[in-house]
Amino acid sequence: MKKIYRINLIALFLILTFQAFSQADVTFKVDMSNETISPEGVHVVGSINGWNTTSNSLTQEGTTNIYSATFQVEPGWHEFKYLNGNAWGTEESASLPCAASNGNRFLFINDSGEAVVLAEVPFGGCNSEGTGFEITFNVDMSSEASIATEGVHMAGWINNWGTDNLMLENDFDAIYTIDFRLPTPADYPIVFEYKYINGNAWGTDEILDAECETVTESNRLITVNTSGTNVYDVFNGCNYELSTDDIFNRNPLTLVYNKNLRLLEFYNTSTTDNITSIRVYNLNGQLVKNLDHIDNISSTKLDFNSQANGLYIVQIEANSKLNVEKIIVH
Question: For residue 185, what is the DSSP state?
Fold first, then answer.
């Protein structure tokens, strides 16, 4: 009997130990400078506390307008809001890049157990640019015959798979973009599971190829380690890397597609000794052309006679940086 009791105690200890280590101390901070503080105080509500409006109050930091408190939070994605009071009707209404259109803020806590101090945010607003964890998602919609009148949306862990509260903007050509600014530190790894929707309802979401490196089952799954990252995806396809560095400022380069010969030709006005490779990907993210050890870019030609018509991504590498261009083969 004593043996069974001891085993039960050990099991209970292990469970409690696991729970203790799985949670993280998270410090929430909100700037109430533009608010008249409610007699009921300032609270935080969300999936961190079962959306209970009274259970987590914040305390004023000295004589400042900052209210903060530290709570234990389970790993994973959470939605939350600040309240100037302790009941519904006193909640803030934030928006992108720190909240979805329903006003819910985004928060991801990884399983490191590391204590986290969230970026200070104004009540109803976002933390300043350059603070917290910033990331931009881009999706190329060129493969779609048309864009839904409801627009292009993103759904995932970040918004509890809502289909209509994260709308992307048409950045240029067929590229749609959305920026996020999370309150966690810039070097705090975040896991995203998501997909894109040509519309705002299930049934218009992309159908992904399981062979894509960043696809698990029917969703995209990536881990982003540092703030300032750009993610580049292709609707119904894989993702690809894209650099905003213009490596050809000193060596201007022109890509010319010869429709009659189905050849891609390269021209520049200076030396190109620094170019090490040219790779071409189709919209499914598959590598279709790969050239290494290029001596003279001006004599380089890529033959597309064996490739289907459509949009292709051309990556030109030099000095460990990438310049990316899009071409239409027809």
Answer: -
Asked if residue 51 and residue 116 are part of one domain, the reply reads yes
Asked if 219 and 193 touch (Cβ cutoff 8 Å), the reply is: yes
Is residue 183 reached through a cis peptide bond, with omega within 30 degrees of 0 on the bond before it?
no
- Spatial distance between the Cα atoms of 89 and 281, rounded to a whole number of angstroms: 51
110 and 34 together in one domain: yes
Backbone φ, ψ for residue 105 (5° rounding)? -75, 160
Task: Compute CA 294 distance to the chain's CA centroid, rounded to the nearest angstrom.
Answer: 35
- Give the pLDDT confidence of 127-141 residue by residue, as tens digits: 999 999 999 999 988
β-partners of residue 326 are 313
In the predicted model, residues of the chain with pLDDT beneath 50 are: 1-7, 9-20, 242-251
What per-residue confidence (pLDDT) applies to 14?
40
What distance in Å separates the CA atoms of residue 316 and residue 313, rounded to the nearest whole number? 10
pTM score:
0.72
With 0-12 CB in 10 A as exposed, 13-18 as middle and 19+ as buried, what is 154?
Answer: buried
Residue type at 189 in one-letter notation: P
- Locate 196 and state its tokens: 């894109």
Q: Where are the beta strands (DSSP E) in 123-185?
A: 133-140, 152-156, 169-172, 175-182
What range defines the domain where residue 215 resides? Answer: 133-234
Considering 74, 102, 122, which residue would you say is the last residue of a domain?
Answer: 122
Q: Which residue has the tokens 């009148």?
A: 149
- Find, among 242, 233, 230, the residue nearest to 285 by Cα: 233
Residue-level pLDDT at 25: 98
